[in-house]
Amino acid sequence: MEELVGINWVLCIAVCAGFWAVKWVLSRANSYFYETQLGDDRFSLPPGDLGWPFIGNMWSFLRAFKSSNPDSFISTFVYRFGKAGIYKAFMFGNPSIIVTTPEACKRVLTDDEAFKPGWPSSTLKLIGRKSFIGISYEEHKRLRRLTAAPVNGPEALSLYMTYIEDSVKFALNKWAGMGKIEFLTELRKLTFRIIMYIFLSSESENVMEALEREYTMLNYGVRAMAINIPGFAYHKALKARKNLVAIFQTLVTARRNQRDGNPPIAKKDMLDALLEVEDEHGRRLNDEEIIDVLVMYLNAGHESSGHITMWAAIFLQEHPEFFQRAKEEQERIVKNRPPTQKGLTLKEVRQMEYLSKAIDETLRLVTFSLVVFREAKDDVKISGYTIPKGWKVLVWFRSVHLDPEIYPDPKEFNPSRWDDHTPKTGTYLPFGAGSRMCPGNDLAKLEISIFLHYFLLNYKLERNNPQCPLRYLPHSRPTDNCLGRIRKVSAPSV
Protein backbone atom coordinates (compact mmCIF):
# COMPACT_ATOMS: atom_id res chain seq x y z
CA MET A 1 0.00 0.00 0.00
CA GLU A 2 2.78 2.42 0.91
CA GLU A 3 4.48 1.58 -2.36
CA LEU A 4 1.27 2.36 -4.28
CA VAL A 5 0.90 5.67 -2.47
CA GLY A 6 4.48 6.52 -3.37
CA ILE A 7 3.86 5.72 -7.02
CA ASN A 8 0.76 7.94 -7.01
CA TRP A 9 2.73 10.80 -5.55
CA VAL A 10 5.43 10.39 -8.19
CA LEU A 11 2.80 10.35 -10.94
CA CYS A 12 1.13 13.43 -9.49
CA ILE A 13 4.41 15.30 -9.32
CA ALA A 14 5.29 14.21 -12.84
CA VAL A 15 1.93 15.38 -14.21
CA CYS A 16 2.24 18.72 -12.44
CA ALA A 17 5.80 19.14 -13.64
CA GLY A 18 4.75 18.28 -17.17
CA PHE A 19 1.87 20.73 -17.03
CA TRP A 20 4.08 23.58 -15.88
CA ALA A 21 6.73 22.67 -18.44
CA VAL A 22 4.19 22.75 -21.27
CA LYS A 23 2.77 26.02 -19.95
CA TRP A 24 6.28 27.51 -19.77
CA VAL A 25 7.05 26.46 -23.34
CA LEU A 26 3.73 27.72 -24.71
CA SER A 27 3.97 31.05 -22.90
CA ARG A 28 7.30 31.68 -24.61
CA ALA A 29 6.52 30.23 -28.02
CA ASN A 30 5.48 33.53 -29.59
CA SER A 31 8.52 35.31 -28.21
CA TYR A 32 10.84 32.59 -29.53
CA PHE A 33 9.21 32.54 -32.96
CA TYR A 34 8.98 36.31 -33.54
CA GLU A 35 11.86 37.73 -31.51
CA THR A 36 14.77 35.41 -32.23
CA GLN A 37 14.65 36.26 -35.93
CA LEU A 38 15.33 39.91 -35.03
CA GLY A 39 18.89 39.17 -33.95
CA ASP A 40 20.38 41.72 -31.56
CA ASP A 41 17.44 44.07 -32.19
CA ARG A 42 15.33 41.88 -29.92
CA PHE A 43 17.22 43.30 -26.97
CA SER A 44 15.95 46.81 -27.75
CA LEU A 45 12.28 45.82 -27.98
CA PRO A 46 9.92 47.54 -25.54
CA PRO A 47 8.97 45.64 -22.39
CA GLY A 48 5.94 43.38 -22.51
CA ASP A 49 5.10 39.86 -23.63
CA LEU A 50 3.63 38.23 -26.72
CA GLY A 51 1.28 35.94 -24.85
CA TRP A 52 0.21 32.51 -25.98
CA PRO A 53 0.49 31.01 -29.48
CA PHE A 54 -2.17 32.22 -31.91
CA ILE A 55 -4.27 34.07 -29.30
CA GLY A 56 -1.46 36.19 -27.88
CA ASN A 57 -2.88 38.82 -25.50
CA MET A 58 -6.37 38.78 -26.99
CA TRP A 59 -7.98 36.86 -24.11
CA SER A 60 -6.83 39.45 -21.58
CA PHE A 61 -7.92 42.27 -23.93
CA LEU A 62 -11.41 40.80 -24.41
CA ARG A 63 -11.73 39.93 -20.73
CA ALA A 64 -10.90 43.51 -19.72
CA PHE A 65 -13.23 45.11 -22.25
CA LYS A 66 -16.08 42.79 -21.32
CA SER A 67 -15.66 43.73 -17.66
CA SER A 68 -16.53 46.95 -15.86
CA ASN A 69 -12.89 48.09 -16.05
CA PRO A 70 -11.61 48.06 -19.65
CA ASP A 71 -8.52 50.04 -18.69
CA SER A 72 -7.27 47.08 -16.66
CA PHE A 73 -5.79 45.74 -19.92
CA ILE A 74 -3.18 48.50 -20.16
CA SER A 75 -2.94 48.81 -16.36
CA THR A 76 -1.69 45.22 -16.26
CA PHE A 77 1.17 46.12 -18.62
CA VAL A 78 2.01 49.16 -16.50
CA TYR A 79 1.94 47.06 -13.31
CA ARG A 80 4.13 44.31 -14.78
CA PHE A 81 6.55 46.32 -16.89
CA GLY A 82 6.51 49.87 -15.51
CA LYS A 83 5.39 53.19 -17.02
CA ALA A 84 7.32 52.76 -20.25
CA GLY A 85 4.41 54.06 -22.33
CA ILE A 86 5.28 51.57 -25.07
CA TYR A 87 4.85 47.78 -24.84
CA LYS A 88 5.22 44.69 -27.00
CA ALA A 89 2.22 42.38 -27.31
CA PHE A 90 0.55 39.96 -29.72
CA MET A 91 -2.76 41.44 -30.84
CA PHE A 92 -5.27 40.50 -33.54
CA GLY A 93 -2.96 37.81 -34.92
CA ASN A 94 0.21 39.91 -35.17
CA PRO A 95 3.28 40.82 -33.11
CA SER A 96 2.54 44.38 -32.09
CA ILE A 97 3.77 47.44 -30.26
CA ILE A 98 1.24 49.37 -28.15
CA VAL A 99 1.97 53.11 -27.74
CA THR A 100 0.19 55.04 -24.99
CA THR A 101 1.96 58.41 -24.67
CA PRO A 102 1.16 61.63 -26.59
CA GLU A 103 4.65 61.88 -28.07
CA ALA A 104 4.69 58.32 -29.37
CA CYS A 105 1.11 58.52 -30.64
CA LYS A 106 1.87 61.75 -32.52
CA ARG A 107 4.99 60.24 -34.11
CA VAL A 108 3.22 57.10 -35.31
CA LEU A 109 0.20 58.98 -36.68
CA THR A 110 2.09 61.74 -38.50
CA ASP A 111 5.25 60.04 -39.79
CA ASP A 112 4.06 58.64 -43.13
CA GLU A 113 7.64 57.84 -44.12
CA ALA A 114 8.02 55.39 -41.26
CA PHE A 115 4.48 54.03 -40.82
CA LYS A 116 1.66 52.86 -43.06
CA PRO A 117 -1.84 51.56 -42.27
CA GLY A 118 -1.60 48.30 -40.36
CA TRP A 119 -5.14 47.16 -39.77
CA PRO A 120 -5.54 43.43 -39.15
CA SER A 121 -6.43 41.35 -42.21
CA SER A 122 -9.69 40.42 -40.47
CA THR A 123 -10.67 44.09 -40.26
CA LEU A 124 -9.70 44.70 -43.89
CA LYS A 125 -11.96 41.84 -44.94
CA LEU A 126 -14.86 43.48 -43.10
CA ILE A 127 -14.35 47.14 -44.03
CA GLY A 128 -12.74 46.56 -47.44
CA ARG A 129 -9.24 46.43 -48.86
CA LYS A 130 -10.02 49.35 -51.17
CA SER A 131 -11.35 51.55 -48.35
CA PHE A 132 -9.30 54.28 -46.66
CA ILE A 133 -7.90 51.83 -44.11
CA GLY A 134 -6.41 49.54 -46.74
CA ILE A 135 -5.15 51.69 -49.61
CA SER A 136 -1.70 53.18 -50.17
CA TYR A 137 -0.65 56.69 -49.20
CA GLU A 138 -0.99 58.00 -52.77
CA GLU A 139 -4.40 56.37 -53.31
CA HIS A 140 -5.54 57.72 -49.96
CA LYS A 141 -4.52 61.28 -50.88
CA ARG A 142 -6.46 61.04 -54.13
CA LEU A 143 -9.64 59.69 -52.54
CA ARG A 144 -9.43 62.12 -49.65
CA ARG A 145 -9.21 65.06 -52.05
CA LEU A 146 -12.34 63.77 -53.71
CA THR A 147 -14.39 63.16 -50.58
CA ALA A 148 -13.16 65.82 -48.12
CA ALA A 149 -14.86 68.88 -49.66
CA PRO A 150 -18.24 67.19 -50.36
CA VAL A 151 -18.35 65.91 -46.76
CA ASN A 152 -16.50 68.47 -44.66
CA GLY A 153 -16.23 71.69 -46.69
CA PRO A 154 -18.08 74.83 -45.47
CA GLU A 155 -20.24 74.93 -48.58
CA ALA A 156 -21.25 71.29 -48.15
CA LEU A 157 -21.96 71.72 -44.44
CA SER A 158 -24.23 74.67 -45.19
CA LEU A 159 -26.10 72.59 -47.76
CA TYR A 160 -26.62 69.71 -45.34
CA MET A 161 -27.78 71.88 -42.44
CA THR A 162 -31.42 72.21 -43.49
CA TYR A 163 -31.78 68.47 -44.02
CA ILE A 164 -30.07 67.69 -40.69
CA GLU A 165 -32.25 70.25 -38.87
CA ASP A 166 -35.48 68.96 -40.35
CA SER A 167 -34.50 65.37 -39.57
CA VAL A 168 -33.58 66.21 -35.96
CA LYS A 169 -36.78 68.17 -35.27
CA PHE A 170 -38.94 65.47 -36.82
CA ALA A 171 -37.16 62.72 -34.87
CA LEU A 172 -37.36 64.45 -31.47
CA ASN A 173 -41.03 65.23 -31.92
CA LYS A 174 -41.71 61.65 -33.00
CA TRP A 175 -39.77 60.12 -30.10
CA ALA A 176 -41.61 62.31 -27.60
CA GLY A 177 -44.82 60.59 -28.62
CA MET A 178 -43.50 57.02 -28.69
CA GLY A 179 -43.23 56.23 -25.00
CA LYS A 180 -40.23 54.09 -24.12
CA ILE A 181 -37.50 53.99 -26.75
CA GLU A 182 -33.91 52.82 -26.98
CA PHE A 183 -32.37 56.27 -27.29
CA LEU A 184 -29.12 54.99 -28.82
CA THR A 185 -30.93 52.81 -31.36
CA GLU A 186 -33.08 55.72 -32.49
CA LEU A 187 -30.08 58.06 -32.69
CA ARG A 188 -28.21 55.56 -34.85
CA LYS A 189 -31.20 55.41 -37.19
CA LEU A 190 -31.26 59.21 -37.34
CA THR A 191 -27.55 59.60 -38.10
CA PHE A 192 -27.77 56.78 -40.62
CA ARG A 193 -30.61 58.56 -42.41
CA ILE A 194 -28.44 61.68 -42.64
CA ILE A 195 -25.37 59.93 -44.03
CA MET A 196 -27.54 57.98 -46.49
CA TYR A 197 -28.92 61.27 -47.80
CA ILE A 198 -25.44 62.75 -48.21
CA PHE A 199 -23.99 59.74 -50.00
CA LEU A 200 -26.91 58.22 -51.84
CA SER A 201 -29.72 60.85 -51.78
CA SER A 202 -31.81 58.02 -50.40
CA GLU A 203 -34.50 57.99 -47.77
CA SER A 204 -35.88 54.55 -48.58
CA GLU A 205 -36.93 53.04 -45.26
CA ASN A 206 -36.47 49.49 -46.54
CA VAL A 207 -32.93 50.13 -47.78
CA MET A 208 -31.95 52.04 -44.63
CA GLU A 209 -33.28 49.39 -42.26
CA ALA A 210 -31.55 46.61 -44.18
CA LEU A 211 -28.22 48.45 -44.26
CA GLU A 212 -28.36 49.59 -40.64
CA ARG A 213 -29.11 46.05 -39.47
CA GLU A 214 -26.13 44.65 -41.36
CA TYR A 215 -23.84 47.40 -40.03
CA THR A 216 -24.76 46.44 -36.47
CA MET A 217 -23.54 42.89 -37.11
CA LEU A 218 -20.46 44.15 -38.93
CA ASN A 219 -19.33 46.30 -36.01
CA TYR A 220 -19.57 43.50 -33.49
CA GLY A 221 -17.01 41.58 -35.55
CA VAL A 222 -14.45 44.36 -35.99
CA ARG A 223 -13.06 44.06 -32.44
CA ALA A 224 -13.66 40.30 -32.11
CA MET A 225 -11.18 37.49 -32.59
CA ALA A 226 -11.07 36.39 -36.24
CA ILE A 227 -12.79 33.03 -35.72
CA ASN A 228 -14.74 32.23 -38.87
CA ILE A 229 -16.98 29.57 -37.33
CA PRO A 230 -20.80 29.77 -37.16
CA GLY A 231 -21.94 31.35 -33.91
CA PHE A 232 -18.91 33.62 -33.51
CA ALA A 233 -19.15 37.41 -33.98
CA TYR A 234 -16.56 37.50 -36.75
CA HIS A 235 -18.42 34.86 -38.80
CA LYS A 236 -21.65 36.86 -38.48
CA ALA A 237 -19.79 40.04 -39.45
CA LEU A 238 -18.44 38.44 -42.63
CA LYS A 239 -21.99 37.48 -43.62
CA ALA A 240 -23.10 41.07 -42.92
CA ARG A 241 -20.26 42.36 -45.11
CA LYS A 242 -21.39 40.08 -47.93
CA ASN A 243 -24.96 41.37 -47.63
CA LEU A 244 -23.79 45.01 -47.57
CA VAL A 245 -21.71 44.51 -50.70
CA ALA A 246 -24.71 42.96 -52.48
CA ILE A 247 -26.95 45.90 -51.54
CA PHE A 248 -24.37 48.49 -52.58
CA GLN A 249 -23.65 46.66 -55.83
CA THR A 250 -27.33 46.90 -56.70
CA LEU A 251 -27.33 50.64 -55.93
CA VAL A 252 -24.12 51.31 -57.90
CA THR A 253 -25.33 49.33 -60.91
CA ALA A 254 -28.67 51.16 -60.90
CA ARG A 255 -26.93 54.54 -60.69
CA ARG A 256 -24.57 53.66 -63.56
CA ASN A 257 -27.52 52.62 -65.70
CA GLN A 258 -29.39 55.78 -64.77
CA ARG A 259 -26.46 57.97 -65.82
CA ASP A 260 -25.66 56.20 -69.13
CA GLY A 261 -26.70 58.35 -72.05
CA ASN A 262 -28.30 61.01 -69.85
CA PRO A 263 -27.04 64.60 -69.42
CA PRO A 264 -25.20 65.41 -66.16
CA ILE A 265 -27.48 66.13 -63.22
CA ALA A 266 -27.28 69.40 -61.33
CA LYS A 267 -27.57 67.96 -57.81
CA LYS A 268 -24.88 65.41 -57.04
CA ASP A 269 -24.41 63.18 -54.04
CA MET A 270 -21.26 61.36 -53.03
CA LEU A 271 -22.02 58.33 -55.19
CA ASP A 272 -22.18 60.57 -58.26
CA ALA A 273 -18.81 62.04 -57.32
CA LEU A 274 -17.27 58.59 -56.91
CA LEU A 275 -18.62 57.50 -60.27
CA GLU A 276 -17.22 60.57 -62.03
CA VAL A 277 -13.77 60.98 -60.50
CA GLU A 278 -10.76 60.34 -62.73
CA ASP A 279 -7.06 60.26 -61.96
CA GLU A 280 -4.42 62.01 -64.06
CA HIS A 281 -4.47 59.08 -66.50
CA GLY A 282 -8.23 59.14 -66.95
CA ARG A 283 -8.82 56.03 -64.86
CA ARG A 284 -12.10 55.86 -62.97
CA LEU A 285 -12.93 53.93 -59.84
CA ASN A 286 -14.24 50.42 -60.37
CA ASP A 287 -17.22 48.99 -58.50
CA GLU A 288 -15.08 47.33 -55.81
CA GLU A 289 -13.35 50.59 -54.97
CA ILE A 290 -16.61 52.53 -54.85
CA ILE A 291 -18.36 49.92 -52.71
CA ASP A 292 -15.51 49.73 -50.18
CA VAL A 293 -15.51 53.52 -49.80
CA LEU A 294 -19.28 53.43 -49.27
CA VAL A 295 -19.02 50.63 -46.70
CA MET A 296 -16.42 52.59 -44.73
CA TYR A 297 -18.00 56.05 -44.92
CA LEU A 298 -21.56 55.00 -44.16
CA ASN A 299 -20.34 53.01 -41.17
CA ALA A 300 -18.10 55.70 -39.71
CA GLY A 301 -20.58 58.41 -40.64
CA HIS A 302 -23.36 57.20 -38.37
CA GLU A 303 -21.85 55.08 -35.60
CA SER A 304 -19.65 57.73 -34.01
CA SER A 305 -22.20 60.55 -34.32
CA GLY A 306 -25.00 58.45 -32.82
CA HIS A 307 -22.96 57.24 -29.85
CA ILE A 308 -21.36 60.59 -29.03
CA THR A 309 -24.72 62.39 -29.25
CA MET A 310 -26.19 59.92 -26.76
CA TRP A 311 -23.30 60.31 -24.33
CA ALA A 312 -23.28 64.11 -24.58
CA ALA A 313 -27.01 64.20 -23.73
CA ILE A 314 -26.48 61.79 -20.81
CA PHE A 315 -23.46 63.63 -19.40
CA LEU A 316 -25.11 67.05 -19.63
CA GLN A 317 -28.24 65.84 -17.86
CA GLU A 318 -26.16 64.19 -15.14
CA HIS A 319 -24.55 67.59 -14.46
CA PRO A 320 -27.32 70.22 -14.16
CA GLU A 321 -24.87 73.12 -13.91
CA PHE A 322 -23.28 72.22 -17.26
CA PHE A 323 -26.69 71.51 -18.79
CA GLN A 324 -27.99 74.93 -17.76
CA ARG A 325 -24.93 76.74 -19.07
CA ALA A 326 -25.21 74.98 -22.44
CA LYS A 327 -28.96 75.64 -22.61
CA GLU A 328 -28.57 79.34 -21.85
CA GLU A 329 -26.08 79.61 -24.70
CA GLN A 330 -28.63 78.09 -27.11
CA GLU A 331 -31.33 80.44 -25.85
CA ARG A 332 -29.08 83.46 -26.49
CA ILE A 333 -28.46 82.29 -30.04
CA VAL A 334 -32.21 82.03 -30.73
CA LYS A 335 -32.92 85.38 -29.05
CA ASN A 336 -30.26 87.24 -31.06
CA ARG A 337 -31.25 86.00 -34.53
CA PRO A 338 -33.20 88.24 -36.98
CA PRO A 339 -36.99 87.74 -36.74
CA THR A 340 -37.15 86.72 -40.40
CA GLN A 341 -34.61 83.92 -39.99
CA LYS A 342 -35.87 80.38 -39.75
CA GLY A 343 -33.55 77.68 -38.48
CA LEU A 344 -29.88 77.57 -37.62
CA THR A 345 -27.03 78.95 -39.67
CA LEU A 346 -23.46 77.67 -39.82
CA LYS A 347 -22.38 80.96 -38.21
CA GLU A 348 -24.65 80.27 -35.21
CA VAL A 349 -23.28 76.77 -34.82
CA ARG A 350 -19.79 78.25 -34.64
CA GLN A 351 -21.01 80.58 -31.88
CA MET A 352 -21.83 77.57 -29.67
CA GLU A 353 -18.55 77.82 -27.80
CA TYR A 354 -19.64 76.15 -24.59
CA LEU A 355 -21.56 73.39 -26.37
CA SER A 356 -18.47 72.74 -28.47
CA LYS A 357 -16.48 72.26 -25.26
CA ALA A 358 -19.12 69.83 -23.98
CA ILE A 359 -18.82 67.83 -27.22
CA ASP A 360 -15.02 67.88 -27.05
CA GLU A 361 -15.17 66.65 -23.47
CA THR A 362 -17.56 63.86 -24.48
CA LEU A 363 -15.25 62.82 -27.31
CA ARG A 364 -12.33 62.71 -24.87
CA LEU A 365 -14.12 60.82 -22.12
CA VAL A 366 -15.84 58.26 -24.35
CA THR A 367 -12.97 57.83 -26.85
CA PHE A 368 -15.19 56.24 -29.46
CA SER A 369 -12.22 54.75 -31.38
CA LEU A 370 -10.02 53.37 -28.65
CA VAL A 371 -7.18 52.35 -31.00
CA VAL A 372 -5.96 52.63 -34.59
CA PHE A 373 -3.44 50.39 -36.35
CA ARG A 374 -0.24 51.23 -38.17
CA GLU A 375 2.67 49.13 -39.43
CA ALA A 376 6.39 49.95 -39.38
CA LYS A 377 7.78 50.25 -42.91
CA ASP A 378 11.29 49.71 -41.54
CA ASP A 379 12.92 49.42 -38.14
CA VAL A 380 11.92 52.56 -36.20
CA LYS A 381 13.29 53.96 -32.94
CA ILE A 382 10.79 55.50 -30.51
CA SER A 383 11.52 56.43 -26.89
CA GLY A 384 14.76 54.45 -27.07
CA TYR A 385 13.05 51.24 -28.19
CA THR A 386 13.00 49.48 -31.56
CA ILE A 387 9.78 48.87 -33.46
CA PRO A 388 10.74 46.12 -35.95
CA LYS A 389 9.86 46.34 -39.61
CA GLY A 390 6.52 44.69 -40.34
CA TRP A 391 5.28 44.77 -36.74
CA LYS A 392 1.91 46.37 -36.08
CA VAL A 393 1.69 49.53 -33.98
CA LEU A 394 -1.46 50.08 -31.92
CA VAL A 395 -2.04 53.76 -31.09
CA TRP A 396 -3.98 53.49 -27.82
CA PHE A 397 -6.03 56.71 -27.71
CA ARG A 398 -7.85 55.69 -24.57
CA SER A 399 -4.70 55.82 -22.43
CA VAL A 400 -3.89 59.34 -23.63
CA HIS A 401 -7.41 60.70 -23.06
CA LEU A 402 -7.64 59.22 -19.57
CA ASP A 403 -4.14 60.12 -18.38
CA PRO A 404 -4.48 62.02 -15.06
CA GLU A 405 -1.22 63.87 -15.74
CA ILE A 406 -2.79 65.38 -18.86
CA TYR A 407 -6.41 65.63 -17.70
CA PRO A 408 -6.90 65.91 -13.92
CA ASP A 409 -9.75 63.69 -12.71
CA PRO A 410 -9.87 62.20 -16.23
CA LYS A 411 -13.03 60.14 -15.71
CA GLU A 412 -15.03 63.19 -14.65
CA PHE A 413 -17.13 64.98 -17.27
CA ASN A 414 -16.07 68.62 -17.08
CA PRO A 415 -16.50 70.82 -20.18
CA SER A 416 -15.00 73.72 -18.25
CA ARG A 417 -11.60 72.04 -18.37
CA TRP A 418 -11.47 73.36 -21.95
CA ASP A 419 -11.85 77.00 -20.86
CA ASP A 420 -8.74 78.81 -22.10
CA HIS A 421 -7.13 75.43 -22.76
CA THR A 422 -5.53 74.39 -26.03
CA PRO A 423 -4.46 70.74 -25.94
CA LYS A 424 -0.84 70.02 -26.75
CA THR A 425 -0.16 68.01 -29.88
CA GLY A 426 -0.83 64.33 -29.31
CA THR A 427 -2.94 64.78 -26.18
CA TYR A 428 -6.34 65.01 -27.88
CA LEU A 429 -6.97 62.49 -30.64
CA PRO A 430 -10.70 61.74 -31.02
CA PHE A 431 -10.40 61.82 -34.82
CA GLY A 432 -6.81 60.67 -35.06
CA ALA A 433 -4.07 62.90 -36.48
CA GLY A 434 -1.90 63.35 -39.53
CA SER A 435 -2.80 62.71 -43.14
CA ARG A 436 -5.27 59.97 -42.23
CA MET A 437 -7.31 61.98 -39.73
CA CYS A 438 -11.01 61.14 -39.93
CA PRO A 439 -12.32 63.02 -43.00
CA GLY A 440 -15.82 63.46 -41.57
CA ASN A 441 -14.97 65.13 -38.26
CA ASP A 442 -16.60 68.50 -39.03
CA LEU A 443 -19.77 66.85 -40.31
CA ALA A 444 -19.95 64.70 -37.16
CA LYS A 445 -19.63 67.72 -34.86
CA LEU A 446 -22.21 69.62 -36.91
CA GLU A 447 -24.75 66.80 -36.53
CA ILE A 448 -24.12 66.52 -32.80
CA SER A 449 -24.36 70.31 -32.31
CA ILE A 450 -27.65 70.62 -34.18
CA PHE A 451 -29.22 67.75 -32.27
CA LEU A 452 -28.10 69.08 -28.88
CA HIS A 453 -29.32 72.59 -29.78
CA TYR A 454 -32.91 71.38 -30.15
CA PHE A 455 -32.65 68.82 -27.37
CA LEU A 456 -31.39 71.35 -24.82
CA LEU A 457 -34.07 73.90 -25.70
CA ASN A 458 -37.15 71.71 -25.65
CA TYR A 459 -36.57 68.16 -24.44
CA LYS A 460 -35.22 65.98 -21.69
CA LEU A 461 -34.29 62.32 -21.41
CA GLU A 462 -35.76 60.17 -18.65
CA ARG A 463 -33.74 56.98 -18.43
CA ASN A 464 -35.33 53.80 -17.12
CA ASN A 465 -32.12 52.67 -15.48
CA PRO A 466 -29.49 55.41 -15.05
CA GLN A 467 -27.22 52.90 -13.29
CA CYS A 468 -27.38 50.47 -16.20
CA PRO A 469 -24.05 48.62 -16.64
CA LEU A 470 -21.92 49.42 -19.68
CA ARG A 471 -20.53 47.45 -22.57
CA TYR A 472 -17.27 48.59 -24.15
CA LEU A 473 -17.16 46.51 -27.33
CA PRO A 474 -17.47 47.38 -30.10
CA HIS A 475 -18.14 50.82 -28.56
CA SER A 476 -19.02 52.15 -25.11
CA ARG A 477 -22.77 52.05 -24.47
CA PRO A 478 -25.33 51.15 -21.79
CA THR A 479 -26.41 47.51 -22.08
CA ASP A 480 -30.04 48.63 -22.51
CA ASN A 481 -29.08 51.05 -25.33
CA CYS A 482 -30.20 53.91 -23.07
CA LEU A 483 -33.82 52.84 -22.65
CA GLY A 484 -36.07 55.70 -21.60
CA ARG A 485 -38.46 58.42 -22.66
CA ILE A 486 -37.96 61.70 -24.51
CA ARG A 487 -40.24 64.36 -23.02
CA LYS A 488 -40.99 67.88 -24.17
CA VAL A 489 -40.23 70.41 -21.45
CA SER A 490 -41.79 73.40 -23.23
CA ALA A 491 -43.64 74.33 -26.37
CA PRO A 492 -41.12 74.32 -29.25
CA SER A 493 -39.59 77.77 -29.46
CA VAL A 494 -37.60 77.25 -32.66
Automatic annotation (TrEMBL):
Pathway(s) it belongs to: Plant hormone biosynthesis; gibberellin biosynthesis; Hormone biosynthesis
Cellular component terms per the entry's GO annotation: endoplasmic reticulum; membrane
Keyword terms, alphabetized: Heme, Iron, Membrane, Metal-binding, Monooxygenase, Oxidoreductase, Transmembrane, Transmembrane helix
SUPFAM superfamilies xref list: Cytochrome P450
Transmembrane segments: 6-26
The UniProt record lists the keyword S-adenosyl-L-methionine: no
Residues that hold heme according to the record: 438
Cofactor: heme
Location of this chain's protein in the cell: Membrane
GO biological process terms on file: brassinosteroid biosynthetic process; brassinosteroid homeostasis; gibberellin biosynthetic process; sterol metabolic process
Name of the protein this chain belongs to: Ent-kaurenoic acid oxidase
Organism lineage string: Eukaryota, Viridiplantae, Streptophyta, Embryophyta, Tracheophyta
